[in-house]
């Protein structure tokens, strides 16, 4: 299972960094707006969510949420014919000059996705970097000192074979979304309208 580690230092306290992380994850994963009066709502362990952005359907589950220390998510990305399983472990640690936010990402590719290994590695690397940037912006810093974060190589677009399979993929995404909604454990279901 390939792994990536991403880190960012923030001058803020652990509770502030964890709160900003929850607010950004809720905005990008389970599509809850951040309530200014009460702050972010802590996600329940075992909650499920579904999110669609472009051609990628993201289905996930919250495995661990220990405030203000750790959050673990298990996600599956469907982009026909590719399937990528992710385990994202966010951890906040105290430092002398603030807090360190560390993201350990492990992922598993199906046969179709493994043919595009470099593409998926680059997309996941870029996504993790953007999430750290979103947390930094939420904290008001805009420029956290990042360590151990390598830049994504290059993002290769969809090939003709993947485009031909997209019609089949649309039905698969609808089926997956309906299955999770019917399970009764769904935290939220969102869809990106900017396609």
Description:
There is one protein chain. The longest helix is centred in the middle third of the chain and has 23 residues, at 117-139. The protein is globular and about 45 Å long. An 8-stranded mixed sheet has the order 7-1-6-5-4-3-2-8, sandwiched between helices. The chain is an alpha+beta fold. Helix content is 34%, strand content 36%. It has one domain: Alpha-D-Glucose-1,6-Bisphosphate, Chain A, domain 4, CATH 3.30.530.20. The protein contains 5 helices and 8 strands.
Provide the fold topology.
Layout: E1 3-10, H1 14-30, E2 48-53, E3 56-66, E4 70-79, E5 82-95, E6 98-109, H2 111-114, H3 117-139, E7 145-147, H4 160-164, H5 166-182, E8 186-191
Parallel strand pairs: 2-8
Antiparallel strand pairs: 1-6, 1-7, 2-3, 3-4, 4-5, 5-6
Helix pairs in contact: 1-3
């Amino acid at each position: 299972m390939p792994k990536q580690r991403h880190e960012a230092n923030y001058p803020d306290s652990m509770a502030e960094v964890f709160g900003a992380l929850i607010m950004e994850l809720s905005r990008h994963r389970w599509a809850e707006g951040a309530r200014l009066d009460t702050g972010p709502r802590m996600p329940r362990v075992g909650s499920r969510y579904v999110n669609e952005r472009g051609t990628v359907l993201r289905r996930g589950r919250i495995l661990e949420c220990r405030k203000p220390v750790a959050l673990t998510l298990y996600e599956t990305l469907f982009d026909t014919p590719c399937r990528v399983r992710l385990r994202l472990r966010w951890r906040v640690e105290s430092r002398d000059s603030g807090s360190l936010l560390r993201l350990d990402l492990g992922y598993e590719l199906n046969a179709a996705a493994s043919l595009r290994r470099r593409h998926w590695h680059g997309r996941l690397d870029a996504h993790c970097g953007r999430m750290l940037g979103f947390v930094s912006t939420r904290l008001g810093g805009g420029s956290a000192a990042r360590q151990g974060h390598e830049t994504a190589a290059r993002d290769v677009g969809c090939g003709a074979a993947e485009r031909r399979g997209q019609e089949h993929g649309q039905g698969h995404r609808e089926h997956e979304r309906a299955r999770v909604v019917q399970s009764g454990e769904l935290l939220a279901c969102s869809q990106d309208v900017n396609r």
